[in-house]
Amino acid sequence: MTEAASEREKSIRRVRRFYEVSAQREWERLEHPTQGALEFAINKAWIQKFLPGPGSRILDIGGGPGRYSIWLAAQGYRVTLADLSANLLAIARGKVAEEDVELEGVIEANATDLSRFANESFDAVLCLGPMYHLLDESDRQAVAAELFRVLKPGGHAFVAFLNHLSALRAAVNQDIPFFTPYTFDIVKRWHYDHVMDFPVAGIFSPAWVVHPRDVAPFMERQGFRSVELVSSQSVAGDVQAHLALFAERQPELYKWVLHELVKLANDPTIVGSGWHLLYIGQKP
Ligand SMILES: C[S@@+](CC[C@H](N)C(=O)[O-])C[C@H]1O[C@@H](n2cnc3c(N)ncnc32)[C@H](O)[C@@H]1O
After folding, report:
1. Among 7, 52, 185, 225, which is most buried by a count of CB atoms within 10 Å?
2. What global pTM score does this model have?
3. pLDDT at 222 over 80
């Protein structure tokens, strides 16, 4: 095995191991008021705008425990959920049964190789996770090329990236205990090398972070026409705890705030202010 191939194997094993220990947490994350609820609300609102008609086929690659797949299947889409992690897929199967929806498939697959799916076989693809778990540029290119290949012309791809610009914000966020002066090297590597890597087990699997300005050119090199780039936390990435409290105390006003946060999420002046980026591109 070449050195590159063995590094690749190692990285896949690390991702699988991380989601073994955090599988249940991953399911809960998108409903957690300070961790993923805002991201889920904003992503769903933006994805919804570009979805094809119900009954269309959607691939959710890196769909993990299945929140987005279940949401789409409940609307009548024919969804295939695929992921690297058998643990997450097991959770997804249980949740699909609990929610009483049907998926076309729940499949173990690596986003870099979707050869089991024919060219132009999906009307839309979600890829909310794999891209930032791949540290090797050629693997990320392979994912973008595979998304493009399996999409029908006119179909949209929804792809999540991690924002490089959040390193400095995270460095000064005293609510996050692992950024002490003793772990400052983590922040520097994130800031200078675009790699977020926590040597402590269980925080996050090593990830690649991208400057927002580089996302569209990267996807366009694989043939996509860029449609939107959205901050999945809009402008509220650092006030999610306040937002959760506000939602509890002022539910009516919160609806208005959330509506405005969703609307602002693609504003070029705030796209770089969230933790996650949602790229929306179309296959011409
Ligand atoms: C942060 S989770 C997101 C899960 C889900 N898409 C969501 O938004 O809730 C990242 C997901 O990407 C999956 N993943 C990472 N690398 C992958 C790869 N190369 N191929 C397929 N799935 C991958 C992980 O197993 C995990 O389920």
Report:
1. 52
2. 0.95
3. yes
